Amino acid sequence: MTDTPPFVSQVERMRARFSEPSVDFYAEALRASRRFRDEYRDRLNVVKWRDMPMERSADGLIKHIVNERMNTKECCIDIYMQFIPPGGATGTSRHLSEEVAYVVEGRGHDHHYDVRFDCKDAFVWEWETTPKTFAWGPGDFIYIPPYCAHKRFNDGGDEARIIVVNSRIMKAIGFDWFDQLEPAQGFDDVWVPPTE
Q: Is 38 inside any structural domain?
């Protein structure tokens, strides 16, 4: 005889089978996976330069290289080329995913406003009010930490072009937190302000 109470009680057994089967979530997941694999076969392996759409975005002029709406086989990242005019800047944005960027041409700097957070009853986010400044030039790699508010400046006399890469994974797991805090100059008409 043992003094250890049983792991499972009669109450738990009764609750476990309280209702009759009424949904097909598992079967629908299998069907959705089948549909995805059938559709995936027809997606693009190569995106030609002429098929990469341009966009006037709140972050400035961008050319989408890979985007979830472009029917490519890439399912985890979005890539675009950012064009910053001489003496110009992007808007200020933040997103819960990390961002990496590669400078194709141009010279400038980034402002990064690091974030601190706490989670007691709810998330509490606080951003630095003084930015860290990072200079960049052709061939440089730029790293943006998660949810760091950031803005990019072109300090040169020629257009800067930067390849920007963002992950879609955070969005897929329920953290689609993406805000454009201010638009790039001249792009106010396409700005969607944050809800805060």
A: no
Question: Would you say 82 and 165 are in contact if contact means Cβ atoms under 8 Å apart?
Answer: no
| CA–CA distance, 83 with 108 (Å, rounded to integer) | 12
How far is Cα 48 from Cα 63, in angstroms, rounded to an integer? Answer: 12
- CB hemisphere CA count around 144 (13 angstroms): 27
pLDDT tens digits for 71-96?
999 999 999 999 999 999 999 999 98
Distance, in Å, from the CA atom of 129 to the CA atom of 72, rounded to the nearest integer, reads: 39
Residues comprising the chain, all counted: 196
Range of the domain at 167: 49-190
63: CATH = 2.60.120.10
CA 104/CA 137 separation, integer angstroms: 8
pTM of the model: 0.85
Both tokens of 77, joined, read 């990242």
